[in-house]
Amino acid sequence: MTMRLWFLPCMLLVSVSTLRAQSLHERIDQMIESTPGFGNIAAPMSSDAEFLRRVYLDLTGSIPPFEVAQQFLADKSPNKRQTLIDRLLRSPEYARRMQQFFDVMLMERRPTKRVPEADFQEYLRQSFADNKPWDQLVREILSADGDDPKLRPASRFMLDRDAEPNQLTRDISRLFLGMNLHCAQCHDHPVVRSYKQEDYYGIYAFLSRTFIFTDKKRKNLAVLAEKAEGDVTFVSVFDPTKTQKTTMPRMPGLPPIKVPNFKKGEEYQVKPAKGVRPVPKFSWRAQLAKEITSPENVRFRRNIANRLWQMMMGRGLVDPVDFDHPDNPPSHPDLLALLADEFASHRYDIRWFVRELALTRTYQRSSMLSAGATEVPPDRFAVANLKPLSPEQLAQSMMEATGSTANIRRALGSKLTEQALYARLKPAIAQFVRTFGAQPGEPEGDDFEVTIDQTLFITNGPLIRSWLKPSGENLLARLEKVEDAKQIAAILFLSIFTRQPSDEETKDVADYLRGRTDRTQALQEIAWALLASNEFRFNH
């Protein structure tokens, strides 16, 4: 009996030690798979082809080149998936992909007003290439006033929103806290009980004294300036007494910040005057960057963990991602808490976090239902959720599939770099963004709705038709050199879908080509049909 009492604590210590030693991706899978009945609905692991296409799209923004697909599918190494993930995360294409994702998230395709869009995008790209911690990136974006040339690109977030405090309050609460407070401006949120009007104005207060100052001495350069006075008051439109309330700057659920008192006339470091940008001794706006990223503000780390989960898994643990509240709880509350805390404890290392997600069985499951399963709730993450390609992913994947990108790589020769290649691809990507992107200032949705303009762009657009003309070593030029229909089908499907065709698909290709005298046109028609298919438009 004594031995058993002595032995039991040792077993517990070993168990706890083992649990702590587990990697995050192992703990994620344990928590996802511990849901009752999970084994009855879980899809099998994805095939190598499905995984390859998915991870390339998620980590580089494009399907893989034909040669890469050939090599990966032929590779028999047991650790080839982890090796691929690590290689892609070190690639310059990863930084570009993250730049595109976060640019759309943060700026919602707004046109340039005061800070060039290209400057902001390059700032983001370099930040992700350097693996800048997320909290540092956010502090730079929210604190940059446009005066420092090094951080002027970061000031685009506020300057190109005209420094309008209501617009900024709505966007900052959505994008950095997962709280859509739009309906809490005039009263407590009518649907979300926990979203209060005082939450809205607590964030608003950080921004209420900020305005745009035009420096005429520097060619009318627009920068942010701030007053040292101005209290924030608000009244609910539903309050019959019209009681006026006041608030100091504060994060939702946290106490107001401490504001120092200055004697009248001593509030400014640089006093306001004609043609002079005022600088207060204590900046409310500067405190926003500190308060929003503080360890006490749990919402900050929950929001980014949830958004990165959505990027990789096709759906947030909290869905929609900007309505995190008790009446819309996470599908896996303990998992979201774990993700948020681990991300923060690893100093908001995005590359590390994305790697852990990519290594999970949850991420690597097939998008095909398991035998016997008829319907699986998407919030169980038992089957990979389908994700429509973003305009950038669609454009880059079409150019890769048709061999247009390969021709540009060859043309660049020794001058080939990711940035040089992207500069050549960018005009075509811009056409896809105009056709498939959301309206400026609107969040990019996950719904797949095809418009007439999009259909015409795919079916009759001169851009895609130009990619399907034999040129150099592109897809059509290579297909014209092949006589065997089976080999043609294999090249087509691996180039476009990153998989081998089924026997039935191979037969369909052979039947379509049989007896055709206009062989080039027939090959173009087959390639176009594959590019226009739903299979190509989705990340499986």
Describe the protein's architecture and organization.
The chain starts with a helix and ends with a strand. It contains 27 helices and 8 strands. It folds into 3 domains: 21-92 and 309-380, no CATH class; 94-292, no CATH class; 387-539, no CATH class. The protein is globular, with a radius of gyration of 27 Å. Helix 4 runs parallel beside helix 6 and helix 11 crosses helix 12. It has helices spanning 2-21, 24-33, 38-41, 48-60, 66-74, 80-90, 92-107, 117-129, 134-143, 156-159, 165-177, 197-207, 284-292, 298-313, 333-345, 350-358, 361-364, 391-402, 404-412, 418-436, 452-460, 462-467, 475-480, 485-497, 503-513, 519-531, 534-537, and strands at residues 210-215, 221-226, 232-234, 245-247, 268-270, 279-280, 387-388, 538-539.
**Total number of helices:** 27
- Overall shape: it is globular
Taking all residues together, what is the mean pLDDT? 94
Q: How big is the Rg? A: 27 Å
Task: Tell me the structural class.
Answer: mainly alpha
Number of domains: 3
Amino-to-carboxy terminus distance: 56 Å
Q: How many E-type strands?
A: 8
Residue ranges: pLDDT <50 for 5 or more in a row? 1-19
Please summarize the sheet with the most strands: 2 strands, antiparallel
Strand order of the largest sheet: 1-2
Into which percentage range does the β-strand content fall?
5-15%
Into which percent range does the helicity of residues fall? 40-55%
